[in-house]
Amino acid sequence: MQPLNSFEYPEELKPAFEKAKRLEWITIFYLISAAALMFFTMGNSQAMKTAWFEDALSLTPSISFLIASRVFHKKPNKDFPYGYHRVVSIAYLCSSLALFAVGAFLIIDSSMTLIKQEHPTIGIAVIFGHEIWLGYVMMAALVYGSVPPVILGHMKLPLAKQLHEKNLFTDAEMNKADWMTGLAAILGIAGIGLGFWWADAVAALIISLDIIKDGFTNLKQAVFDLMDEQPKTVEEQKKDPLLDKIDALLKKQDWVKEHVFRMREEGHVYLGEAYVVPTSDEDLVENLNQLGEEVEDLSWRIEEFVIMPVREIPETTGEK
Amino acid sequence: MQKVWKIPLLLCLCWLLAGCENYPKDPNDTLAQVTGGTLVVGYSENPPWVTLGPNGHPGGVEADLVRGFAKTIQAQITWKRDTEQNLLEELEEKKLHLVLAGLTDDSPWKSKISFTRPYLEQGKKKHVFGVVMGENAFVTKLEKYLHQKEDSLKTRYGHATPQ
């Protein structure tokens, strides 16, 4: 069997890929520092605990992106004849499952705090000999944990679209949404200070609803990807317009009487096949070869496109 | 979505500005009630932190600290003697304001009730009071008092358990 073409990203996208990797390393180190700071200041605040969990969790897309990036560009071999592209989808599944599970856990946890009416106690902290209400220290830690990720998120979004990288996209979206988590937790702590013991748990509940929503959307998409759903754009989750281009190209061929084709997403790249009913057998091999090349030239994302001449269109294929 | 978030932010700023004078506040106004009123303190002997004096009144390091604190807020103290277990259960039900029992912050009760920040560290042992949950103005007031006493306590008891 002929192994698939081994490249993942074309030359012009390699700098973008390198930049994405750099940003993810920065994100990881930054998030660890923010999580450590929050851990030492969180005390009895439920919202703070929830925000801490979210921060620690938002490491998973970054880490799974970096791990996947060491694997997916490997050449196909005897054991893995289709290459390693799908590792990206698996990484995506892992990070979205983690997100979903922790969201569910946190909803239960903060609901219990409300039901049991646990009043969070926040006393003072002594920093360099000064007595400060610990709530203020928590708010400062939350600001440190919320502002820079928004900037990182905005830097990653365009790269994710360019690279057709869903892990990176999830990560960027989560980073961008981080300020909401931070703000909710700050409001919760400010609420405790005003004597509303429930403010903290309510803030935590709102944060966890946001986490579980993110988790569910991404988990669904990850499962659909592994089930070979038709390729969709990274940012809007709509049918990729590339599919219409392929259809138009197939339609344009005067030697093709009828055609169907299907495509699936393997990580960053698409693989697919077409069944065509030729008008005659004349120059068939030549025509097939040329058409295949034309389709693969439409975008770097089309990794392999197999064209099969048939007498009749088989009924089992989807797209017409 | 973005506009919705601005509303609580503005509300919060208003609250903060309005509430600056006494911040943090108590959900159940404990500090306001005990100031010039009565502080209900449970104690359980654990020498040298809490001892039973000859006249039936508690003594020891912790009892002295609480008397000093009560003085700063012009409060009377109602003492209640019981086992540590019973006292902490009553504290959980908010029937007491404070529990003195020579507690340290590694107590398994940590998840059920609240402790003050350690008023004294002896090696790994961090000595704390049990305090009514979530009454943050009261806790903050007490912790500030304890922090002022920290240095003198440290020079007296910092290294060895006093006998």
UniProtKB/TrEMBL annotation, chain A:
Membrane-spanning ranges: 23-40, 52-72, 84-108, 120-147, 179-199
A family per Pfam: Cation_efflux
GO cellular component term of the entry, any: membrane
Family: Belongs to the cation diffusion facilitator (CDF) transporter (TC 2.A.4) family.
Subcellular location: Membrane
The name this protein goes by in its record: Cation diffusion facilitator family transporter
Signal peptide: none
Topological category with respect to the lipid bilayer: Multi-pass membrane protein
UniProtKB keywords: Membrane, Transmembrane, Transmembrane helix, Transport
Species for this entry: Nibribacter ruber
From TrEMBL, chain B:
InterPro entries cross-referenced by the UniProt entry: Solute-binding_3/MltF_N (IPR001638)
Record Gene3D superfamilies: Periplasmic binding protein-like II
Statement: the UniProt record of this protein carries the keyword Signal: yes
Pfam families in the record: SBP_bac_3
Solute-binding protein family 3/N-terminal domain boundaries: 39-124
Keyword set includes Signal: yes
Highest taxon, organism lineage: Bacteria
Keyword terms of this UniProt record: Signal
Signal peptide: 1-20
Protein's name in the database: Transporter substrate-binding domain-containing protein
Source lineage: Bacteria, Pseudomonadati, Bacteroidota, Cytophagia, Cytophagales
